[in-house]
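Q: what does this look like with magnesium ion bound?
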Amino acid sequence: MTADGARVILVTGTGTGVGKTVTTAALAACALGAGRRVAVVKPVQTGVDPGEPGDLAEVGRLTGLTDLHEFVRFSEPLAPATAARRLGEPGPDLEQLAGRIAELADRDQLIVEGAGGALVRFNDRGQGICELARVVREVMNCRLRVVLVTGARLGALHDAAATSQALRAAGVPADQLVIGDWPVEPGLAERCNLADLGSYGQAPVGGVILHGADQLTVPAFAKLAVSSLTPTLGGTCNIAKYIKTDAA
Ligand SMILES: Nc1ncnc2c1ncn2[C@@H]1O[C@H](COP(=O)(O)OP(=O)(O)O)[C@@H](O)[C@H]1O
Ligand SMILES: [Mg+2]
């Protein structure tokens, strides 16, 4: 269970491919392990044809969860608003998306995965995950926790700082950072960056997910999820063990 019992966790990222989906699965696995009723939502999925497995299939494969909800899909691997425009469509209406998320309000925990990085647009009004988060918070009148998934390699400090500033400016500041894909053999940059990411990203590092997590079976992934996330996010991880502090 998350420490403050936030009902909705929004998972966004510093970019595409940073590990939002595996982070979403880890959050779900921890909540499931704590006996909570969990649903995972992917409001907008791009880059996948109808009937093909998208991010939710990945979450299901890693956690065994079947309470999975995707609302809008675009086949082209593009930002949702761009894919929609190419079809002559305006893109999804955020009030409608928020309404469908609110229909799942009887779950103990809702985990919502964005599309791409935090500033990617969903529709021709220039709205994206930040605006959706605000509408969900309003419609559901509940605490919404924002998890920002980031890398740790060289360049990650700037990405985390820039994205965190943007989230803050949009009224949905990041509550926690999670490293979505921590290398098996972290280099100097990764281990030193981890010490600075919290300050750059204006939120504590609440998880480090090891590379290869996406290859595990459901029971193995559940175990890894608990050891990857800090107690605030439902696990037992102590981030300090990954950080390099000495000069040697
Ligand atoms: N911890 C990890 N271990 C192994 N592969 C990972 C990990 N995190 C992400 N990846 C891989 O990186 C790619 C992008 O990850 P994904 O979670 O889909 O990113 P996002 O959801 O942020 O777009 C996928 O191929 C995924 O399998
Ligand atoms: Mg994803």
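DSSP finds eight helices and seven strands in the chain. The chain has a mean pLDDT of 95.
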